[in-house]
Specification:
Length: about 400
């Protein structure tokens, strides 16, 4: 029953316990970093930092992990997570494709070439996300929530991304062709309709898998029923229904496009972090072709506080930390000391995630979510190849003693 119903029945609801240290630390981090961004850059960067913070809270409270959603469909034949992702892509397509092709200057979609690099990179990423335990955004929000094993994944994610940046020019010389925006073929309305039909066909397949295994569809995670707590308490410290997370993630990506000029991206920041770390210890990254290209060279030269993906990632980390503190679940997933094989999986998975993300032009956010929201063909190919790789990663998890 809802919290109000509990009170009417004369039963005291469970106490709301907050981890004050974690909450205060997260708020202090947000205040200090937000102030530095304000002083060094411009108000629009502070806005993007705030959007990243809200996205981190939504990912945490909504438990909106692409990795677990795919795994639950394969192993448990439950499709709630996958359906939520498809609904997110559909809503964002309806919002962002018209934005991108409205004629407004300065808006650039997440489009990328189609070729060997994309296929190999997304396939590797799919394996890595099941071994590492998360995609780009999933790794960040679980690190923000205090998961120690995911810190290992993130470190090697960054290492793999830097290695991938060094090798990317060679991969781009392999067979492939230029980006294919679906709008060029079908027009704005046609591209949206084609994408909605594609997402609908996938949803139909997901439903058939679940119905065949269980006879009914899992729907309780989609809408809030108010069984445990009131709306406000659920919003601040509880597990969100997927619908809430979908609305906030779609709005966040659209706002990122409108304010920053391009859709939400996560993993390019990892390239920059790793390259700057290597330069700090004496490695000249500008000797490599990737870091001579205009945008990477500028990102390497400038402060991290001027790099949009980095600023949003910082917000995401602190937002997830704040959400975990408010829910009193910080470090909940790391109460037991990680064993050797799970740590090895974090290392291998992180390397595959980083290398695959660089070759595949992003992760589930930058390549898939933002790619479909931009009506780019490469996002659909990424989806198929990453899911195929994920199937292999799922089969490898038992050897690494990772749970279902």
């Amino acid at each position: 029953m809802s919290e109000s119903a509990v009170l009417q029945a004369g039963v005291k609801p469970p106490a709301w316990i907050v981890d004050r240290f974690v909450v205060l630390t997260a708020l202090a981090g947000l205040g200090v970093l937000g102030g530095l961004i304000w002083l060094e850059t411009a108000p629009f960067m502070v806005a993007l930092f705030a959007i990243g913070t809200v996205l981190g809270m939504a990912l945490y409270h909504g438990a909106f992990g692409f990795t677990a959603g795919w795994r639950n469909l394969v192993l448990k034949k439950r499709g709630a997570g996958m359906r939520a992702q498809l609904m997110l892509f559909a809503l964002s397509s309806l919002i962002m494709v018209p934005m991108l092709y409205s004629g407004q200057a300065g808006l650039v979609g997440a489009v990328a070439p189609v070729g060997t690099s994309l296929v190999v990179g997304s396939f590797m990423f799919g394996i890595g996300m099941q071994l590492g335990g998360g995609c780009g955004s999933g790794t960040l929000f679980t690190v923000g929530a205090g998961n120690i094993r995911m810190v290992v994944t993130l470190v090697f994610f960054i290492a793999g991304a830097v290695l991938g940046s060094i090798h990317l020019p060679w991969w781009l010389d392999q067979p492939g062709f230029d980006p294919v925006p679906l709008v060029n073929t079908f027009g704005v309305s046609g591209a949206i309709i084609v994408q909605l039909l594609g997402l609908g066909l996938i949803a139909r397949w997901v439903n058939r898998v679940e119905l065949k295994a269980h006879g009914t569809l899992e729907r309780n995670e989609l809408l809030w029923k108010g069984q445990e707590h009131g709306v406000l308490r659920t919003l601040i410290s509880g597990r969100w229904p997927f619908t809430w997370a979908i609305l906030i993630l779609a709005a966040g990506n659209a706002l990122t496009l409108g304010i920053g000029g391009s859709p939400w991206s996560v993993t390019f920041a990892f390239n920059v972090w790793g390259a700057k770390a290597l330069e700090a210890v004496g490695v000249n990254m500008s000797q490599f072709e990737f870091w001579q290209w205009d945008y990477p060279a500028m990102a390497l030269k400038d402060s991290l506080l001027t790099n949009i993906p980095s600023v949003m990632n910082f917000g995401l980390l602190l937002g997830a930390m704040l959400a975990a503190g408010l829910a009193n679940r910080f470090n909940e997933a790391s109460r037991n000391r990680p064993q050797r094989r799970p740590l090895l999986a974090a290392v291998v998975g992180g390397l595959l995630l980083g290398y695959g993300a660089r070759l595949g032009f992003g992760c589930n956010i930058g390549a898939l979510f933002s790619g479909i929201s931009s009506a780019s063909l490469h996002a659909w190919i990424w989806f198929a190849c990453a899911f195929a790789g994920s199937l292999i990663g799922i089969r490898l998890r038992p050897w690494f003693r990772l749970p279902d």
